[in-house]
Amino acid sequence: MSNEPVRVWMAMDPEQGRMLLVVNRVPVGTLSSVGGQIALNIDPEYAGLRDDLTKYCGSVFANMPDTLRAALYEAPGFMTNTAGRDAMEALAADRKRRVHLGCGPDVRPGWLNIDYQPGAALGYNTATSFLNYDLRQGLPGLEDGSVDMFFSSHFFEHLRHEEAMNLMQQCRRALRDDGMARFQMPDFKGTFRAYVDDDQAFFDTAVSTHKILDHMPAYAHNYADLVSRSVYEFYTHKYIWDPDNLSKALGAAGFSDVKLDAYAADLDHPSSLRRDYSYYLVARP
Ligand SMILES: C[S@@+](CC[C@H](N)C(=O)[O-])C[C@H]1O[C@@H](n2cnc3c(N)ncnc32)[C@H](O)[C@@H]1O
User: Fold this and answer.
1) Which residue's C-alpha comes closest to atom 27 of ligand 1?
2) Angle of helix 188-196 relative to helix 223-232, nearest 10 degrees?
3) Are residues 217 and 143 in the same domain?
4) 2 in any annotated domain
5) Ligand 1 atom having least distance to the Cα of 100
6) Distance CA 244, CA 9 (A)
7) Per-residue pLDDT reduced to its tens digit, 200-253
8) CA of 256 to the centre of ligand 1 (A)
9) 106 CB less than 6 Å from ligand 1?
């Protein structure tokens, strides 16, 4: 390379689903994620740049504001990786291959538990079988037909419609033919019905038992405030799914058998809050 000032670019290559590393307009390698950690793959021709580029990229990622990092992670393909596949292999082979999407604090032994905690180290913790991974990018490299069960509770409404559809399609592909995906979902329709009916018992349970307006000032303890909290969930909800549109979406994603189900104590999130505001869908290939 010439003596011109060194400029490093990270550029998306959406067709290949990877991030290119470009120095002074010359592509010198790619960035990928191995086990959830960023790795540099420098072309042998430019091996001499490896140390400097490692330092440079490390400092860029370490110092970038969370919002920018989050925006980067949203770029399609940026984290295409094998983290999930490696994590599955780390789970004992004789266990069922079960994947818990958007697990939050409900990390279950024997499952691959996935949740995204921006700012914490990405990657897999073998001790807890927890993978810090952004599911907006789809599944983390799980192989087709390799999973017995997907479970999620109050998670899919946190994705945009297109992200949710992408994930549903990938879940279908990753499921074995005799596998199933179980969705514990917020019952928005029940909340809207209660609101329109001015259902006082529903309001009292939400406010007195579940304390869902405790964070709000007294003047904001009204029905519309309750509905806002349920529907927007501190502005983290992105889409409303009811049994009707979710069943059709799952059908479009390739599931052929989708049914409403009752609460299942061995699988569903057991808290009274979840139990009071959930419906359950089971989807099979
Ligand atoms: C309402 S909580 C549900 C947690 C738990 N499943 C439960 O029922 O209590 C939604 C969860 O989705 C996770 N989440 C939101 N967006 C995500 C993403 N893009 N990738 C992975 N997890 C995500 C959040 O971190 C949070 O833990």
Assistant:
1) 104
2) 170
3) no
4) no
5) 6
6) 45
7) 999 999 999 999 999 899 999 999 999 999 999 888 899 999 999 999 999 999
8) 26
9) yes
